[in-house]
Amino acid sequence: MQDFFPLDGAILVDKPSGPTSHDVVDAIRRKFGIKKVGHCGTLDPNATGLLIIVLGRGTKLSERLMGDDKVYEGTIKFGETTDSYDSDGDRVASLPVRPTTLEALNTEAAAFIGDLMQMPPMVSAIKKNGVPLYKLARKGIEVEREPRLIHIYNFRFTEYTAPLGKFRVACTKGTYVRSLAHDLGQKLGCGAHLTALRRSASGKFDVADALPLEMILQLSTAELEKRVMPFLKLATHA
User: Fold this and answer.
1) Peptide bond into 120 cis (omega under 30)
2) Residues forming a β-bridge with 151
């Protein structure tokens, strides 16, 4: 039987706004001197929440864990469209928002539940001829993208005070919540963009069980080992 070390497994990180998912991986690798570190599903820099970090032999399970369904909570601003579909981008249109209610908004959101062919945003890490789309977007180049099949299990607003709506969405991997916000805005005729996003769950893992990145980086190696989900237990979740 293969021997596993205390740092072969995964740790649940509550990612703050600012760093990229790769920044989180790099910080943990450097702090604890672990050669193999990876993550199971990219979060945009301004997004927060659950980031599953795999360590050592745990990296062998990253692809399987990455395929899990996700749950997000966030805020959409109606009436403004940006080129990145979120608040990081430049505003490209501004239109008045018609008076509406939470109930009416949820009726519109319900139309997105089920299988969808979603068009990825230009500002994304998807590659075209080996070049990430966001690099082309920075040069003002827009290229044709292939729509991707995704599934929305649930999409519901919990609060609405014009022009901001707070929502919760459960979806398959590969879903761009930014695109969902943009498409809903187009459907309503006023435009919209994502202003905040937090991943609350991925598969069987919940952000409530995660530790903020700042606290993880203050742990000793022995303390980190106590937080690591061992490889064999992790494999049962994969």
Assistant:
1) no
2) 115
User: Scanning the structure block, which residue is given the tokens 């760093």?
Assistant: 19
Architecture in CATH for domain 70-201: 2-Layer Sandwich (3.30)
- Alpha-carbon distances, residue 237 vs 113, 151, 203 (angstroms): 26, 21, 8
**For 122-154, how does the pLDDT look when each residue is reduced to its tens digit (9 = 90+)?**
776 677 777 777 776 677 767 777 899 999 999
Domain regions of the chain by residue span? 9-67+204-237, 70-201
Please give the positions annotated as active site.
44
Task: Give the CATH class of 9-67+204-237.
Answer: alpha beta
pTM higher than the cut 0.85: yes
Q: What are phi and psi for residue 92, nearest 5 degrees? A: -115, -15
Please give the C-alpha separations between residue 68 and each of 28, 49, 55, 191, in angstroms, as whole numbers. 23, 16, 18, 30
Both tokens assigned to 8: 């072969």
